Amino acid sequence: MEILIKPLITEKMTEKAEKLNQYGFVVDKRANKFQIKTAIEEMYEVTVEEVNTMIYLGKRKFRGTRRGYISGRTNSFKKAIVKLKDGDIIDFYSNV
């Protein structure tokens, strides 16, 4: 099971990283906090202090076509906010 799917790089998460030393990741829905913590510590070689998780339901979408409306949902996902020890940072832009 791949625990970390992708990092969340948004304006809000960039601000949290600068001010509060917190980083966001999209993770597997079946992963628990301990698995997320160990995966991040192994991949980025940092010390994780705490992990907060939340599950987002996919947004409802409507699209009008010639034959009427088509409704559906985007995929739901689990998000993890990770707080690192003071002095540790994760640089997502180092490989660019």
Give a brief description.
Helices cover 23% and strands 42% of the residues. It has 96 residues and is an alpha+beta fold. Strand 4 (60-65) and strand 5 (68-73) form a beta hairpin.
Tell me what the structure shows.
It is a single chain. With 96 residues, this protein is an alpha+beta fold. It has one domain: 2-Layer Sandwich (Alpha-Beta Plaits), CATH 3.30.70.330. The chain has two helices and six strands, in the order βαβαββββ. A four-stranded antiparallel sheet has the order 1-2-6-3. The longest helix is centred in the middle third of the chain and has 12 residues, at 33-44.
Percentage of residues in strands: 35-45%
Shape: elongated
What is the CATH homologous superfamily assignment?
RRM (RNA recognition motif) domain
How can the largest sheet be summarized?
A: 4 strands, antiparallel
SSE ordering: EHEHEEEE
Briefly note the CATH topology name.
Alpha-Beta Plaits
| Overall pLDDT | 93
- Which CATH architecture? 2-Layer Sandwich
Distance linking N and C termini = 26 Å
Number of structural units classed as domains:
1
Strand and helix layout:
Layout: E1 4-8, H1 11-20, E2 22-27, H2 33-44, E3 48-56, E4 60-65, E5 68-73, E6 77-84
Antiparallel strand pairs: 1-2, 2-6, 3-6, 4-5
Summary keywords:
single chain, 96 residues, alpha+beta, Alpha-Beta Plaits, four-stranded antiparallel β-sheet, two-stranded antiparallel ribbon, 2 helices, 42% strand
